[in-house]
Each structure stands twice: as structure tokens, then as C-alpha cells.
Design a protein that fits this description.
2 strands
Amino acid sequence: MSASGAQAKAVGPAPLLSIGQVLARLTPEFPDLTPSKLRFLEEQGLVSPARTEAGYRKFGARDLDRLRLILSMQRDHYLPLKVIRSYLEDLDAGRSPVLPGGATPGPSMLGTARRLSREELLREASASASLLHDAVAASIILPADYYGEDALGVLRALVELQRSGIEPRHLRGFRGAAERELGLIESALVPLSRRKDASSRAKAAETAVEIAGQLEVVRSSLIRSALGRLTK
């Protein structure tokens, strides 16, 4: 047997993962992910893990990438499951679909989750340490040992805003506005929250994402309207 053949045999296929192992890999990027939500996504036909003879779910590398894509589409674009399902069906059929609004999946949606140290975050955002400190003080970015793509995007935006004279302290009200929106979402979820079964909890998480997306539509429209008045 050749050396390359021996090496291939030694490597072998990637091991399948249990639900617990999937959570361990994905929750650093998606803290709200739970076993209930994984089961819910399977019930909705978005992911199809293998099953052992005893009935336990086993996820392969492709399943993991698919889950990361689904969760990123929910988090980054507030897309409902019916839109995500249609997008995945197009991908499975070999087409090249475009997300609503012309958005395309970024590296964080298709690749391995990134975890940036403080120094890496500052370097990639071309930001000063004082700007990050001010952003944390204003509760625009939450303090952490490692940061994800979301924090990187926010810090890059803060760098550009600073060039226009807008500092993190000017944005303190954003956190309060976000908390008020969260209150609206929690109120809307009361009927589902009263149910304790796993399916209802997963449905509540999905509904929360959809409501957040609709609130984002309203907020964006109000800002565009205000900008129109400003430029008249």
C-alpha cells in the first residue's frame, strides 16, 4: 500500500456528532441554540441528521454547516423559516439563490465560526482600544473574552461613525431601544411561553426572530422617511 493510501486509511471519514457535541460547537456563536431548537429544525425539514439503531440523532460535517447557515440566516437577516427552506431547496437543487433584499451569505454563514480575541477584533476593525472601551461602556458591544462577526461589524460601523463625529456615548439610547423592543417581543410570546413542551419553546424562538425582523422593517422605514425630510 502506498504512503498516501495508508494516510487516507488512517484519516478515514469525519466522526458523526451527537446533539451535545453539536451544541458544544455551535453555541459559542449561537448562544440561544438548544436541543429543542435542533429538534424543531429537524421537524421543519431543514436538517436531516442520521439515526442510530437506537434512534439517536447523529450529525455529520454537512449537517453542521447547514445548521450554521440556517442559524446565521435567522440571526443576521431575520428570515422566517419558510424563506430559509426555499433558499435551501434551491441550494440542494444546484441553483444559486439570492436572499431577499439581494443579500448574499457572508463568510460567517458558510464557513467555520470565527472567535476573535480583543487584539484581533481591534486589528480587523481598524479600531482603537479607546473606541472599543467606549463601546463597551455604552453597552453597544458586550464585554467578552472572544468576539464574533457581529461585534466586528458593529465596531467597524463605530469606526466610520466616529469619522462623522458620532461617538459610542451618543448611542447609549440604542441599548434602551433594544430592550424596549425585547419587551414587545416577550409580550407577544406569552401564549407560547406558558407551554412547557419542547416544540412550543422552539416555536417561540422562531417567532421571536420573525417579530424582530418585522420590527427591523418598521425601524428602517422610519429612518428612511426621516432622512427624506432631512434632505428636502
